[in-house]
Design a protein that fits this description.
single chain, 116 residues, mainly alpha, 79% helix, flat
């Protein structure tokens, strides 16, 4: 297994999280706005779709090259990346209780994925 696979897996997760954040940004506040304001939201929407497309094809390539039992634990990191990205990019309030929940989810997924 090449040393590049962990890097590509992290990049794929970044594409997925970035795509979701762009889509959330594009969907915020589109109801009842003017046509010009709606067109301004087209750029983050297109970026979100583009990043999710990159994630999809990179993930398919990783699935063909790496064992799923190795790949899946990295997928468990996405809730952590998502919470961190949402707090930075979308200015969502992240309480200590929410962070504890995210860490519990990630920890549980890591335990399950390594218990073979």
């Amino acid at each position: 297994m090449s040393g590049w696979f962990p890097v590509l897996i992290i990049v794929s997760q970044a594409f997925m999280v970035g795509g979701q954040i762009f889509l959330k940004h594009a969907m915020n506040g589109t109801a009842g706005e003017s046509e010009a304001a709606k067109w301004k939201q087209a750029v983050p929407f297109a970026c979100g779709i583009g990043l999710l497309t990159l994630w999809f094809f990179l993930w398919l390539e990783l699935l063909s090259q790496v064992e799923l039992s190795y790949l899946y634990p990295f997928d468990a990191l996405s809730p952590l990346f998502m919470a961190f990205g949402a707090s930075l990019a979308l200015k969502e309030k992240m309480t200590p209780r929410l962070w504890c929940g995210v860490l519990l989810i990630v920890g549980g997924l890591m335990i399950v994925s390594t218990s073979q």
